Amino acid sequence: MKRAQIETLMPEMRAYARSVSGHVQDAEDLVQDAIERALSAPSRPDMLDELRPWIFRVIRNLHYDELRRRRVRREYSAAQIRYSDEATTGTDTERDTLIRLAFEKLPPEPREILFLVDVMGFKYSEAAQVLNLPAGTVMSRVSRARKALRDLIAANGTNTI
């Protein structure tokens, strides 16, 4: 992909990103992420008329990935608060300790995937690259790992982990 092609598409990319995100700052982030993805993609269209829909699809996918990540984090945070409130009436330090101990009891694979996505904030696609797995596999493993963590907390919340 040539710089001139990117420059040609920039106004349209920004407009599209603003239309899907609704915020100027989010739109700029989407455009920058899309350019980064496009430049690092092993196979991408060379012709401008093929590149245009391809890069728009990248922007759209990035936007939905971000929305999904925000929703998952909100749900995860709400679940953690709910489970920690049920598990302990102690201080935040006690709750954090309970979660950390449960996290350490997870098997290595679920612990690793939760660390990448929830602790380090990796996108599913980034975690997939690190683990050399398809993004869908990462998503399902994250879901199972979160459930396993919640189960550990629920099972041991009233006892010492």
Explain how this protein is built.
The chain is an all-alpha fold and 161 residues long. The chain folds into two domains: 1-67, Rna Polymerase Sigma Factor, Chain: A; 88-161, Orthogonal Bundle (Arc Repressor Mutant, subunit A), CATH 1.10.10. The chain has seven helices and no strands. The protein has helices spanning 3-21, 24-40, 48-87, 92-105, 108-119, 124-131, 135-156. Helix 3 runs parallel beside helix 7 (135-156), helix 5 (108-119) packs across helix 7 and helix 6 packs across helix 7. The longest helix has 40 residues, at 48-87. It is elongated, with a radius of gyration of 20 Å.
Summarize the structure in short.
With 161 residues, this protein is mainly alpha-helical. It has 7 helices and no strands.
Number of strands: 0
Distance between the termini: 54 Å
SS content category: mainly alpha
The biggest beta sheet reads:
none
CATH secondary-structure class of the largest domain = Mainly Alpha
**Low-confidence residue ranges:** none
Question: Beta-strand level of the residues, as a percent range?
Answer: under 5%
| Assembly state of the chains shown | single chain
Gross morphology: elongated
Number of discrete domains: 2
Features:
elongated, Arc Repressor Mutant, subunit A, Rna Polymerase Sigma Factor, Chain: A, 2 domains, 161 residues, 7 helices, single chain, mainly alpha
Secondary structure topology:
Elements: H1 3-21, H2 24-40, H3 48-87, H4 92-105, H5 108-119, H6 124-131, H7 135-156
Helix pairs in contact: 1-2, 1-3, 2-3, 3-7, 4-7, 5-7, 6-7
